[in-house]
Amino acid sequence: MTSRPDFDKSTTSEEVVAAFSHHIAGTTILITGVSSNGLGAAMAMALASEHPARLIFTARQIAKADEVAHAIKTNVKDPPSILSLEMDLSSFESVRAAAKRLLEQKITINTLVNNAGVMALPNRTLSVDGHEMHFATNFLGHWLFTNLIASNMAQGGRILNVTSGGYMICPIRFHDIEWEGAEALPQEEQPDFAAARSLGIGSLTSPGNYNGMLAYLHSNAASVLLSVGLATRLKSQGVSTLSAAPGVVVTELQRHIGGFRNATMEYKTATQGAASLLVAALDPALQSHGGEYINDCQLTEITSSHVQDEEVANRLWAVANKMTDCNF
To answer: pLDDT band at residue 77, thresholds of 50, 70 and 90?
Structure first.
């Protein structure tokens, strides 16, 4: 249970940081994927008002992170120190360079929010390292970055992996993880077509066909499994790892689809969407948790076994090690 059972889908980021201000003051918080009109910016603006010692922003285009930093310095009284890092999560070289800079500065991180992502690319696209772009950016890049800087996480720190409520639709496609077009997938790796159609996700005819929204949701499942995989590996550091979904928020992330197609969905503002993420990142009642999921600012049962299974998480971890040529 969270410490604020009164928080719900209408709660704002400002309300969350006010409630947990004592757990923000003097800390260092790193957010990936910070740009204006995004959840990263909503989190950053709210956090800055509660006196963290340092905020660290990463962005593929550093000018976007700097724009948010400028807004904070202009609008927040006594703004914190802010460091912007250029990091393209779809490039292992870029991820390693950003991690190296942090490690060289010996910056201790209290809270890491893996927020950056791409969504619903209309055509199958490969990263510079040759991996399907949603999987490369939303999962592999964060997996690599988190492991590289894990030694800089504070004892008792917190890692949040941002996902979506559609994590249950597309299990990990171990037999076609790059969406190359498998003629057949094992039943347990096939998308839940009925659930996908209920969300208005395109024309679905075959498990092997590339679909941008399905590829995005596939990476969301991987993000939840990242929390599961990290939970056991960072337990000795007292680091908690959780996943959280912001709900349906119209941001730059949705530029390829112009907003969700299902008119029955309930939309949130950016500050309401970011509130769930901040509860997961800050609530002291969640400190001993590992792999749990926050939705509408409350712990929510994960209904799909494919993102709870430690065996699946370990199998995905091995895939990530192989793809990144690492041995974490």
So the answer is: very high
Helices (H), 120-211: 133-134, 141-149, 193-198
Please indicate, yes or no, if residue 2 is contained in any of the structural domains.
no
Structure tokens at 54: 């340092």
Query: Strands 109-114 and 81-86, how do they pair?
Result: unpaired
pLDDT digits (tens, 9 = 90+) for 213-252: 899 999 999 999 999 999 999 999 999 999 999 988 765 5
Q: Which residue segment(s) compose the domain that 218 sits in? A: 13-323
How many domains does the structure of the chain reveal? 1
| Burial annotation 205-231 (CB, 10 A radius, 16+ → b, else e) | eebbebbbbbbbbbbbbbbbbbbbbbb
Amino acid at 203: S
- Rounded to an integer, what distance in angstroms lies between the CA atom of residue 249 and that of residue 41? 13
Q: Which residue has the tokens 């980021």?
A: 13
CATH number at residue 297: 3.40.50.720
The model scores a pTM over 0.85: yes
Task: Give CA torsion, residues 33, 34, 39, 41, to 10 deg.
Answer: 170
For residue 204, tell me if it sits in a domain: yes
DSSP for 98-121 reads HHHHHHHHT--EEEEEE-------
Does residue 243 form part of some domain? Answer: yes
**Mean pLDDT of the residues in the chain:** 92
Report how far residue 292's alpha carbon sits from residue 51's, in angstroms, rounded to the nearest whole number. 28
Which phi and psi angles does 252 have, rounded to 5°? -60, -25
pLDDT in tens, 253-297: 554 455 445 556 678 999 999 999 999 999 999 998 789 999 999
